[in-house]
Task: structure prediction
Amino acid sequence: MFNELSNKKNVEWSYDSTNNDWTSLDKWVEEGRPEKFIVLGVFINPHGKITKNEEGEVPYVITKGFNIRLPLWCVKMVKMLLDDPALIEGIDSGKCGAKVMQYEDQFGKTRNKIELYDM
Result:
């Protein structure tokens, strides 16, 4: 579904995310959703809203029932995943997990990040 919308890599994920809800990583944490989940796909929306007046590449991770917007600094990670056929195959076969973690930035603000791991 997202091939025409999201990435130029033409990756076809087995999981149909057509009816997924859209959320951000911050909302995911605020709503008390699981800190660990299976990654069923990733994509980049090249026309995503970064700020009110600015568009750019916005990274997403797909899990059962949700398309989760990641922090903008994750664009490089998602592009790396989309460039590696072995990683694409691993994600598509359900062998990639994600763990949401919190950290404190240099200004003392709590931020959320995601770490991927083999399952």
